[in-house]
Design brief:
- It is a single chain.
- This protein is an alpha+beta fold.
- Among the domains are: 41 residues; 146 residues, RNA polymerase II/Efflux pump adaptor protein, barrel-sandwich hybrid domain (OB fold (Dihydrolipoamide Acetyltransferase, E2P)); 166 residues, Butyryl-CoA Dehydrogenase, subunit A, domain 3 (Up-down Bundle); 54 residues, no CATH class.
- The protein is 54% helix and 19% strand.
- The strands form six sheets. A six-stranded antiparallel barrel has the order 2-10-13-12-11-14. The protein has a four-stranded antiparallel sheet with strand order 6-5-4-8, with no helix packed on it. It has a three-stranded antiparallel sheet with strand order 3-9-7, with no helix packed on it.
- α4 runs antiparallel to α9.
- The radius of gyration is 49 Å and the shape is elongated.
Length: 593
């Protein structure tokens, strides 16, 4: 019994020891973990922030004003009219701008005049818009024509240089051939290399001109841009056949190049000469294929123009037909050389010298004709370029002049409309302030003249504040909202009693503010804060905006425990605040500088 108890006690003691060890272990672990967390934690300094909505509600237009006493205002007629209706009676309370007396137009139809003036103004504005659009389109078209003429001129210069150099090479070769001409077989055999070079030169010209349009080799394929997609667009099979023919011509060129420069035997000379003539004919056939496929190409004004297509057709025609001297010369030279080789197999012909003379004459003719034609092409391209530049400069200069004349017409139309509208508005005689009608001095049906007293309004308070505002500020004032007044360290309130509809000689409008509290001292200065009338959340203080460049601005906001730059678009800068083009989120937090 005692042994069993000892074992039980020992077991309980070990369990208690393990439990206490486990408790102390986790206590020390969490204490260290907490201490480590506190060491790693970094306090975030939160700057002063305010929401966009709070800023927008705080924005106001602050203007200085003069405290003055109210008085009776006598309203008189501005022209000769007839009273048609009286809309108030004596001692009625009226608001600023309320119609008191309506007049009928007994002399001229001011309503018709105002409508006509408004139509004239609308037509002038529409004319400017249409004229500007038309002028811009003309300038764009002239600029495109100028760029095309510039490219054509540069292209003509380049092709002129190439053609003259090529003609010079043929002339030099013909002169060399003439000096080395001999009727012997050895001379013919030695001249094989020159004939071979002449045909290779012609073949390379056909290959380069064709490959520059088709791009069958890697070199020209890398140089192509948008042109190939417009070439032979109407017949894709024709385009593929032309490419196959061009590749075959490249193979023939390599075979010609592999021929010996001076065949050893007469049989070899005759056979090789026949091959040269046959492969030369295939070069002419390739030029004919290019003529046909170019005729089926689709033109694109700025990519592959009609002028470019026509120029290429003409170029291959000059290569393919005999109307161009160099093609005729090569054909004649090859045929004559072949005949000379045949005749030399049986006898020493005398035609070789004559053929060399004729080749030299033809080469001279080719050179002179090529030089004259290319000079004429460059001259015509230069004239076209100058005319295009002159047309572009003239249109650009005339644009500003024409728009300036239209702007003057718009100003005249606007003045006429405002004048007619002012006369028409005089038909409705309105109260200039929110006071009380003291007396009505006319009756319905009565004829009145300029200066006739119509009615009198009387003030109900002794003090008011007179504030002068600009036309630009006029647009932003909320006339039906209370205003804040600061006077001698006192914060007062008031309401807008009246705002003149016509500016004075200094282009300012007078706003009259009635104070809720009487002030004993008159003619003193007070500050008036007018509520601003704009879309919600579109106003920000100017000093909160950072200018990046002419069209980019940003503000600093607080988002997720860090400062960030937020891009904005500004419609207009006003006094000490800016008006945004788009409203910001109302809960956006701005960092106060």
């Amino acid at each position: 019994m005692s042994s069993s108890w000892d074992k039980s006690s020992s077991l309980v003691w070990w369990l208690w020891f393990v439990l206490m060890f486990w408790v102390f272990f986790w206590a020390f672990y969490y204490t260290g973990l907490s201490h480590s967390y506190q060491e790693d934690k970094v306090d975030v300094v939160v700057p002063n922030t305010v929401s966009v909505s709070e800023y927008s509600n705080q924005m106001a237009l602050e203007k200085p004003g003069t405290i003055a006493s109210t008085q009776d205002i006598l309203v008189t007629a501005q022209a000769n009219w007839k009273v048609s209706k009286i809309s108030a009676k004596e001692w009625d309370e009226v608001k600023w701008g309320q119609t008191i007396v309506s007049l009928s137009d007994t002399i001229a139809s001011y309503k018709l005049q105002a409508d006509r003036a408004k139509n004239a103004l609308d037509r002038a504005l529409l004319t400017k818009q249409q004229t500007k659009l038309s002028l811009d389109q003309q300038i764009d078209a002239a600029n495109n024509a100028y760029q095309s003429a510039k490219q054509a001129f540069e292209y003509a210069q380049k092709m002129s240089d190439i053609s003259v150099r090529q003609a010079g090479v043929w002339l030099a070769q013909a002169e060399l051939w003439l000096t080395q001409a001999d009727s012997s077989f050895d001379t013919l055999r030695n001249s094989f290399q020159w004939t071979k070079s002449l045909i290779l030169s012609f073949m390379r010209e056909v290959l380069d001109a064709s490959d520059a349009l088709l791009g069958v080799t890697p070199y020209y394929d890398n140089l192509l841009w948008a042109e190939e997609s417009y070439i032979w667009a109407e017949d894709i099979h024709q385009k593929q056949d032309a490419k196959k023919a061009l590749l075959s011509l490249y193979e023939l060129r390599d075979k010609i190049d592999a021929l010996p420069d001076s065949p050893e035997t007469a049989d070899d000379l005759l056979a090789d000469t026949e091959l040269l003539y046959e492969w030369f004919q295939k070069s002419l056939d390739m030029a004919g294929k290019m003529i046909d496929v170019m005729k089926n190409s689709v033109s694109q004004e700025y990519t592959f123009s009609r002028a470019t297509i026509d120029w290429n057709i003409k170029y291959f025609q000059l290569l393919q037909v005999g109307t161009f001297a160099k093609a005729q010369q090569i054909t004649s030279t090859v045929v004559q050389y072949k005949d000379q080789v045949k005749s030399s197999l049986s006898w020493e012909g005398t035609l070789w010298q004559e053929s060399a003379n004729l080749a030299q004459e033809n080469a001279n003719l080719v050179y002179e004709n090529t030089k004259a034609q290319t000079e004429n092409s460059v001259f015509n391209a230069e004239i076209a370029l100058k005319n295009a530049k002159l047309n572009l400069d003239t249109l650009t200069q005339n644009r500003d002049v024409q728009l300036w004349l239209i702007d003057n017409a718009i100003v005249d139309s606007r003045i006429a409309y405002e004048t007619a509208l002012t006369q028409y508005n005089k038909l409705q005689v309105r109260s200039p302030v929110s006071w009380v009608i003291g007396s009505i001095l006319v009756s319905e049906g009565q004829e009145i003249w300029v200066g006739t007293q119509i009615f009198k309004v009387s003030g109900t308070k002794k003090q008011q504040i007179e504030v002068y505002i600009t036309a630009d500020e006029y647009k932003y004032i909320q006339k039906d909202k209370p205003v804040e007044i600061t006077y001698q360290d006192q914060l007062l309130t008031g309401v807008i009693d009246a705002i003149s509809t016509i500016a004075d000689r200094t282009n300012l409008f007078k706003a009259t503010v009635q104070m809720d509290t009487d002030i004993q001292l008159l003619w003193d200065v007070a500050k008036v804060k007018f509520p601003i009338q704009v879309a919600e959340n579109t106003l920000l203080p100017l000093d909160q905006v950072k200018v990046l460049n002419e069209n980019e601005w940003e503000i600093t906001i607080w988002d997720w425990e860090s400062k960030k730059q937020y891009p904005i678009k500004i419609r207009k800068t006003r006094w000490d605040f800016v008006e945004l083009q788009e409203a910001l989120p109302s809960n956006l937090k701005l960092v106060i500088k």
